[in-house]
Write a structure and sequence with these properties.
There is one protein chain. This protein is of the alpha/beta class. It has a single domain, classed as Class I glutamine amidotransferase (GATase) domain (Rossmann fold). It is built from 7 helices and 11 strands. The strands form 2 sheets. It has a 9-stranded mixed beta sheet with strand order 2-1-3-4-11-10-9-6-7, sandwiched between helices.
Amino acid sequence: MSILVLEHSDRARCGRLVATLRDHGHRLDIRSLHDGDPLPSDLEGIDGVITMGGPMAPDDDSQPWMADELQLIRTAVEQDLPLLGICLGHQLLVRALGGTVERRPGGQRIGWHPIELNPTGREDPLLAGLPWQWTQAHWNSYQAATLPGDARVLATGPDGDIQVCKLGVRTYGFQCHPEIAPETMQAWIDDEPDVVRSAGTTGEALMAETASQWPSFERLTDRLFKACAMLLFPLEQRNLGIGQVTEIHH
């Protein structure tokens, strides 16, 4: 059994997240869809799905993998497989399950901005022990507009946008980017200098803030990834005390 990881860009790899999953004994089946890797024909032998970010729009049906990935997301949910979507992946799972996505009314959000857990998010087992407000990495021009009917918002951004949601019991979407490393932010800056300028900042300023935010961000996202490994994608090893989650107090 393995976790299927769907990547859509060389600049939005699964990085630190899958490193933690491997440390907890998970096998990963990573498919680079933008490089032409095929999606599996079924989910036999798959015990979880992660769908990552990418520069394309979530409603760009010209992408050769788009229709098949949307159907795979629906199938995974129908089969009650745990599923995690990050940025574009979050938008795709919202779209696949009946919600809607839109361009951000305020334009592209980049850099470091707070997200806030609502009362439902504060009690969610995957987010337990995380601060009620913490600073996350962002780089997105689209967002979820409406969620599928049974979905719950767990956290919002500065303008009330949906940053974390939960659909059913084992499907989560993160609009922000908990998986990044400092070099990821630098790669995005290098790739989209016009976006950086239009946001009224500079690459140097963004990287200085990245260095300032990194120690706390790394600690908190490592805690999140351990929770994903043990709660969202559990193995029998978690019952043996492997990879215990350290409580973080507010």
